[in-house]
Every structure is written in structure tokens, then in C-alpha cells.
Amino acid sequence: MEIPAFINKCVDNGFKWVRENEAVLIKRGELKLKVEDKTILKHSWAKLFKRIGSFDVYHMSRVVGYYSRIQNWNPSKLGELSDRAKGKYGVV
Q1: 35 within some domain
Q2: Is residue 77 part of a domain?
Q3: Of 53, 62, 50, which is closest to residue 31 (Cα–Cα)?
Q4: Which residues have a Cβ under 8 Å from the Cβ of 59 and sit 6 or more positions away?
């Protein structure tokens, strides 16, 4: 599928999009999905839409040994999650 046709189909299906270094970043609400140009060019809209069409996902976090859905968290706990340091950790 051609890139402009893909973008038009995204708009028709209610996705917002941004062009990004050889990829299209698709947005719906707070959720984002990056689709590379080579993937778009390789597949049909039907196959691509199967992958991008379902933004029915939830986020989870592992805190102190157990997993929980962050949708159930209060605003203070969500603030703690966003304040956590993210980095590359490893043994040297």
C-alpha cells in the first residue's frame, strides 16, 4: 500500500497521525503506534488495520513483585509511575 493512501485510510478511520523518520506515528487518545514505511508498503490496508485497528488495550506495571492495571490507579499513584526513573540497567 502506498504511504499517502495509508494516511488517508487512517484519517477515514478516526486516527490522528504524524510523519516521523520513515514511519507514520498513529495516535488515538493517549495511545500511539509507530508503523514503519517498509511495513506499510509491504502490506494491504486489511492486514495493517488488523494490527492498528484495535487500540483496545490496557497498560500494566510491575510494582513490588506483582502486576496491576494502571487504569485502576488513583492520580497520586499515576504521578509516581510517571516520576520513576527509566534507564538502561546492566552489569558491567
Answers
A1: yes
A2: no
A3: 53
A4: 69, 70, 71
Q: Which set of grid coordinates corresponds to residue 46?
A: 486489511
Dig out the grid coordinates for 91 from the structure.
552489569
Give me the long-range contacts of 29-34 (CB less than 8 A, separation at least 24).
29/55, 31/55, 31/57
What burial class does residue 91 get, using C-beta atoms within 10 Å of its C-beta: 0-12 exposed, 13-18 middle, 19+ buried?
Answer: exposed
Confidence (pTM): 0.54
β pairing state of 23-28 and 31-36? antiparallel
CATH of the domain at 16: 3.30.920
- As averages over each run of 10 residues, the pLDDT of the chain (92 residues) reads 90 87 83 86 88 65 68 82 70 59
Cell numbers given for 74: 488513583
Residues in the chain: 92
